[in-house]
Backbone:
């Protein structure tokens, strides 16, 4: 788990959780450059990670149908076959949000925008999960890639970013609308 902001609270919470699951090995890596952004934090942590690793945004909640064993294996195979840097998990917008990833031909990604644009037939929504091949990240200067989107755009410009389309429910809890929707779904699940 990569942390920076609120590191001590995250560490304490995870440590108390792991008491109940002694067989699970979780490493917590603290990014010293607090506030730099997800991109630079991942670059700084790359040397500690396996050759392939999954990044899931901390402010999103993915249902168990988004990252499954099957599509994880599919993403690993796609990385290996295509010799690319990353494989993004994309889907259709959940509640009318606009898409932010422009698709190319044969599972390639053509563009990535910070802002979401009008939904069109050649765009999908970034679910906040991406399988990475560590090699690209080891050679980058963290100062130049503060946002994870900056690394996506680099991989895309090099022709090294592909995607798989997944179903499932995605909640961007980094927004008020996303948090409200997620809380509502938890309440509905408990009532049912």
Residues:
């Amino acid at each position: 788990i990569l942390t920076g902001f609120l590191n001590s609270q995250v560490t304490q919470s995870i440590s108390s959780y792991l008491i109940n699951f002694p067989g699970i090995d979780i490493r917590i890596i603290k990014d010293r450059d607090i506030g730099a952004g997800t991109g630079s934090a991942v670059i700084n942590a790359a040397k500690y990670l396996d050759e392939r690793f999954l990044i899931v945004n901390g402010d999103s909640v993915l249902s168990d149908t988004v990252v499954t064993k099957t599509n994880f294996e599919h993403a690993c195979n796609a990385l290996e076959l295509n010799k690319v840097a990353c494989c993004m998990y994309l889907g259709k917008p959940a509640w009318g949000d606009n898409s932010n990833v422009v698709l190319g031909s044969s599972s390639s990604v053509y563009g990535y925008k910070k802002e979401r644009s009008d939904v069109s037939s050649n765009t999908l929504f970034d679910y906040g999960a991406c399988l990475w091949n560590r090699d690209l990240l080891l050679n980058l200067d963290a100062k130049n890639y503060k946002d994870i989107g900056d690394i996506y755009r680099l991989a895309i410009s090099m022709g090294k970013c592909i995607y798989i389309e997944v179903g499932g429910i995605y909640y961007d809890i980094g927004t008020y609308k996303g948090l409200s929707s997620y809380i509502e779904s938890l309440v509905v699940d408990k009532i049912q």
In short: Residues 13 and 87 are 30 Å apart (CA to CA). The chain has a mean pLDDT of 79. The chain is about 35% helix and 25% strand. The first helix runs from residue 7 to 18.
